[in-house]
Amino acid sequence: MAEKKSDRTRAAILAAARERFGADGYERATIRAIAADAAIDPAMVMRYYGSKEKLFAAAAEFDVRLPDLSDVPRDQLGQVLVRHLIERWEEDDTLQVLLRTAVTNEAAAERMRQVFIGQLTPAFERAAVDQPAVRAGLIATQALGFAFCRYILELEPIVALSTDEAVAWLGPTIARYLTAPSPSQA
Amino acid sequence: MAEKKSDRTRAAILAAARERFGADGYERATIRAIAADAAIDPAMVMRYYGSKEKLFAAAAEFDVRLPDLSDVPRDQLGQVLVRHLIERWEEDDTLQVLLRTAVTNEAAAERMRQVFIGQLTPAFERAAVDQPAVRAGLIATQALGFAFCRYILELEPIVALSTDEAVAWLGPTIARYLTAPSPSQA
DNA sequence: AGCATATGCCAACGCCTGTTGACTTTCGCA
DNA sequence: TGCGAAAGTCAACAGGCGTTGGCATATGCT
């Protein structure tokens, strides 16, 4: 009885929900379509998750899983961080869900803020970085912009980049946002 | 008869449409709400613009209006470009409309691609920049990411930046994307 | 003034949405 | 084998949507 019958249905619903929310955004992803993908009745979605909003909340759970940065050499911080973010991005489509929905859904926006400010800032504090909030914000602009162009807009030159090329291009940017003295020039 | 009565209604509809599309995104911005904002009947919107899609197409017209970059000193390119983009952003909310809608609306996404690849790339070509497409794409990631965090997500540390501070932070990034040799470090 | 045309309003349509409640089937345990 | 609960099905609801066509009003020209 460790695995009940209903658990698999719940999981199927959640997987379908993530796919639809990620592909269509919050409003265009309908309960009916999600249910059809999971091959069950729309009413089951309501029984298991209560409402579309609660289903979304469950589908948008995310942890950026930052590694410990305090023992990384200062001059490799950018590369390490960028590589982690990009790889985290591609192994888990939840961030694509958030990106696609945060634009019109306040709950998604709040969760995104929580990830990028609430999780990045304290990690930077622990790594003894000054002005951790501003730096977290700046890094968010580059990381989210990259994801937006690569996965949502699908700009050809950005889609074409390999992970290594992307790391090589973005690494120095992230590094500078992380370590450069306040408003600086080049 | 240079200015007919209907022209003002058309303009009122377009202004209301821009506001709603920019605030709510494509699907949540309803014809009825736009018409209410413009203080006219929903049927008028159809009469003047034919359909919601065509209204959107009219509301999302945008030109990035890049200045001529060929006579700007190489070491000021980043600052100049960033300042232009940010100021262009804030004087015209059409880009916010695009940003809010490109996520779920293919027409908006296509227009955004046209702006950032179709307008940036040839300008870089004229300024004798090598690999203009990749560089345009990279600059798009940083510019759009900044706008996304500042105007859509409203991340506090990014919202709090003044224009000058933003230029100081992003300028070197854009400059590097514009001039650094291919995949580089530092 | 009188008429044609431009402008605007109203009511309704067909469709799709999230959500609900009642009903049927399946399963696990005594 | 029975019985109760869990799991799944079905049809319908109320409301919002884009869109349409018919009708009233205002406008401008002769």
UniProtKB/TrEMBL annotation, chains A, B:
Keywords annotated in UniProt: DNA-binding
Cited Pfam families: TetR_C_16 (PF17920), TetR_N (PF00440)
Keyword Isomerase: no
Molecular-function GO term, any one: DNA-binding transcription factor activity
Matches recorded under InterPro entries: Homeodomain-like_sf, HTH-type_TetR-like_transc_reg, HTH_TetR, Tet_transcr_reg_TetR-rel_C_sf, TetR_C_16
Residue spans crossing the bilayer: none
The HTH tetR-type domain, residue ranges: 7-67
PROSITE patterns: HTH_TETR_2
DNA-binding region boundaries: 30-49
Protein's UniProt keywords contain Transport: no
Name assigned to this protein: TetR family transcriptional regulator
Organism: Kribbella kalugense
Organism lineage string: Bacteria, Bacillati, Actinomycetota, Actinomycetes, Propionibacteriales
